[in-house]
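User: I've been trying to design a sequence by hand for this structure and keep getting stuck. Would you show me what you'd pick, starting by listing the structure so we're on the same page?

Assistant: Good idea, let's start from the same input. This is the structure you sent:
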């Protein structure tokens, strides 16, 4: 009888121990969920701040590159593109705060390196990005403009493209557009498609 009582007591103690462990595990799972939520919120805030710091930047692809191009040459080339494709806007010499090529020159790659330009004013940068007609004309001429996005934002836009949509960010918020298809129009026909820059014609 004592042996049976002893076994019953051990079983009861074991059950209590298991229950304590289960409570501890549940508490740890709750804390883990809270930590994961905190980390996710911090990542989103960091992404928002990073995106805000980049919001005046525009990347331009397809602008031909010459050996010895300076940052001033890059800024002038960007202004020429703006004046050609968005001529209705007044593009003053100080519209670009600074501009330079991205990456190191690669003799094996015939494509010009993209230029990243920081605009003095956010509104000027968005004037180009919001002008779908101008960007379609640029694409017809082998040029492309894109926002300077964070990794998270780039992944989100990729998801949109996979769904057949396009979009852009304004103050860290995503706005979507219908898919844009390049087309010839009266504005394209009236333009001189070749932009003269300090380093040549492109």
């Amino acid at each position: 009888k004592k042996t049976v009582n002893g076994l019953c007591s051990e079983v009861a103690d074991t059950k209590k121990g298991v229950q304590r462990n289960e409570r501890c595990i549940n508490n740890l799972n709750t804390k883990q969920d809270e930590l994961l939520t905190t980390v996710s919120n911090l990542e989103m805030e960091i992404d928002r701040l990073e995106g805000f710091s980049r919001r005046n930047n525009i990347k331009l692809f397809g602008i031909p590159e010459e050996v010895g191009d300076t940052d001033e040459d890059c800024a002038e080339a960007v202004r020429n593109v703006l004046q050609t494709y968005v001529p209705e806007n007044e593009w003053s010499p100080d519209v670009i705060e600074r501009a330079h090529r991205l990456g190191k020159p690669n003799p094996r790659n015939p494509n010009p390196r993209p230029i990243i330009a920081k605009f003095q004013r956010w509104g000027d940068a968005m004037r180009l990005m919001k002008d779908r007609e101008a960007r379609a004309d640029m694409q017809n001429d082998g040029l492309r403009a894109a926002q300077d996005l964070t990794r998270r934002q780039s992944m989100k836009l990729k998801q949109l493209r996979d769904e057949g949509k396009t979009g852009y960010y304004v103050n860290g918020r995503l706005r979507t557009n219908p898919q844009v298809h390049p087309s010839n129009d009266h504005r394209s026909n009236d333009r001189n498609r070749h932009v003269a820059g300090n380093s040549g014609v492109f």
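That's my pick for every position. To get oriented when you compare it with your attempt: The CA atoms of residues 51 and 150 lie 6 Å apart. Strands lie at 57-61, 96-101, 115-119, 144-147, 166-170, 173-177, 196-197, 200-201.
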